[in-house]
Amino acid sequence: MHGLRIKALASLVLALATFSGTLLDRTTGQPLTDVHVHAAGPSAGDAITDAHGRFTLKSLQPGSYTVTVESNDVPPQTFKVTLAGNRITVLTMKACSTTLDYHCAGPASPNGPGAHRVLGDLGPPPAASPPWRGSSSGMRTRS
Q1: pTM higher than the cut 0.70
Q2: Which end of the chain has less Cβ packing within 10 Å, N or C?
């Protein structure tokens, strides 16, 4: 009976997954440091990115996960990841950072299947009316 329990425990331990990744700014490609990474799914795990934007979550149950990244400079953004047992899944994820990306503002919206949530791009600034207007002589005068 104890042998059966040990075998069941051993197969459970052997089936666990590891998720490693690098978190980069989506615009600049710079590593995002000191960002909290949380995986929620069949089990849960937490990590903080290092000076190179890298993180590792170990001993996760196989299955589908929602991975959320967040810090003072990185608004909450989510990624969908599927982990297989006895495997190390390595991904590079790109997120929006308010420090490195001036487009990082506004409400979040999905960015396609399997992608992370991306904060809406503001796009180019609107064209402003110039402080001058044309005159009939071709010279510009201030209004």
Answers
A1: no
A2: N
